[in-house]
Amino acid sequence: xxxxxxxLLYSFLIVTALxxxxxxxxxxAAVTTSVFSFVIAVLFIxxxxxxxxxxEAVVGAGVLGVYFIAMILRTTRRTxx
Length: 81
Fold this sequence. Notes:
mainly alpha; 0% strand
């Protein structure tokens, strides 16, 4: 059962990484990167490194995700030339 869950998480990790690399919209890439970080955190917790998993969830999926989205929303899509 444990190996099945890890296999599903690793598969989802690969899918989210490929989506984050190939998506054209920056906002979608930032959200997908946050999902990737959250899956990494779940994998850390599954492997027994609870403190590392919680830190990854807070910093990687939480703070950096909000920071990326805030910076993308502050940029403009077209130049004013």
